[in-house]
Amino acid sequence: MVDKMIPDIVVGRLPRYLQALEHLLNEGIQTTSSQELGDLIGISAAQIRKDLSQYGEFGKQGRGYSIPFLVEQLHNILNVNRTWEMVLVGAGNLGHAIANYQGFMEHGFHIAMIFDNDPERIGTLIGDIEVQPESMLVDLTRRHGIKVAMITVPASAAQAVADELVLAGVLAILNYSPITLIVPDNVNVQYIDPIIHLQRMTYYLD
Amino acid sequence: MVDKMIPDIVVGRLPRYLQALEHLLNEGIQTTSSQELGDLIGISAAQIRKDLSQYGEFGKQGRGYSIPFLVEQLHNILNVNRTWEMVLVGAGNLGHAIANYQGFMEHGFHIAMIFDNDPERIGTLIGDIEVQPESMLVDLTRRHGIKVAMITVPASAAQAVADELVLAGVLAILNYSPITLIVPDNVNVQYIDPIIHLQRMTYYLD
DNA sequence: ATATGTGAAATCTTTCACAGCG
DNA sequence: CGCTGTGAAAGATTTCACATAT
Predict the structure, then answer these.
(1) CB of B195 within 8 A of CB of A109?
(2) What are phi and psi of A136, to 5 degrees?
(3) How far is Cα A63 from Cα A168, in angstroms, rounded to an integer?
């Protein structure tokens, strides 16, 4: 059932299903239906069933889905049944906030190293991690086999950082800086930019 | 040409066009083509032309687009040819980082007020803004006619905050907390959740 | 009685390809 | 000649609706 080229748009919804299912589980709920889950996240029941059916038959007719089982399956599908080591580049305000966010650990993402090129910041501690000079990024990242990175440097520095990350073998980049990064085809980039989201909403305001 | 129910998926690309165009303008470039712009952000030239043509004829055949003119048009379309006052709810680590981010001001978004319900934080200054008690959120937000809000409180508090914002007349919410918010149809919500993005990428890693 | 999984239909989105203008 | 704007075609995605299993 798997790997018959499942569209990325489907993949993009799976983490949202997982998030909602984990939320239900936290409330002690053990079973749900595509209808209930859909109401919770604003997606049609048919779409949820269709999406999940790409990967297997996880439900029981007449009864719905076992949440613990479905959560486990989604962990497997999304490759988050393990810990992912990450590097964080940029130890400014945003970098600090991200480094201190507990949610990463709770979901199996661990910040292993933090880099910056500001001498004032190098050597300082964020939590229990020492900020390292950016000159060591490529070497250390490659030596640790790290595949996931987050960029929180200013826009003017972001492409150079991305180039170094690619050189170091990183394959997934979460980019908080407000520019489009140019990377090879085998490297995945996701963007977080509040301005983009705000403008998408102001469009609909008088 | 406008308002023939243009799909939201088109609206969602407009801010990215604007971002790239402003970037070109910063480099002193005055003219571009759908091809060049598309190469820059990884979108086909045909799609860019089609998207823009929903709103008017902004280009010149044989010559391409005047960047200053197109930027101005996109500002009008996205309603960002003005300043939007915003409220920020949640003065923790992330709230601080966001409150200090210069990018908002540069794009016409201004944080007018910050709220929190932690007595330790109330009364403290973030930049030049004093953190106010959440009990005053509805009243102050409504009195100032503020329509845009950002939520950076823990997931457990986010829905209650959203309810208050709706009560206060807010119509656009940028939600940094990792839950789906339930709001009336006329209220727009956008989500920023790094875990969702990371899981979407780990899917593609071995 | 209830809710899944799924072909088929409907809808939406993107790409093609070219007339037409500068 | 180059590049836009745009109908038409192709392709992708979502919804429908129902056979099927508990």
Answers:
(1) yes
(2) -95, 0
(3) 48
Nearest to A205 among B155, B171, B197 (CB): B171
* Yes or no: domain B8-77 corresponds to CATH 3.40.630.30: no
B48, burial (CB in 10 Å: exposed 0-12, middle 13-18, buried 19+): buried
Chain segment A28-39, per-residue pLDDT in tens: 999 999 999 999
**Which residues have CB under 7 A from strand D?**
A 7-10, 44, 46-47, 49-50, 60-63; B 33-35, 45-46, 49-50, 52-53, 57-65
**Fold match, A8-77 / A84-196:** no
| Pairing assessment for the beta strands A64-66 and A109-116 based on DSSP bridges | unpaired
- Tens digits of per-residue pLDDT, A121-156? 999 999 999 999 999 999 999 999 999 999 999 999
Q: Where are the domains of chain B?
A: 8-77, 84-196
Which amino acid is residue A196, in one-letter code?
I
> Please, what CATH class does the domain formed by A84-196 belong to?
alpha beta
- Does residue A3 carry a pLDDT above 90? no
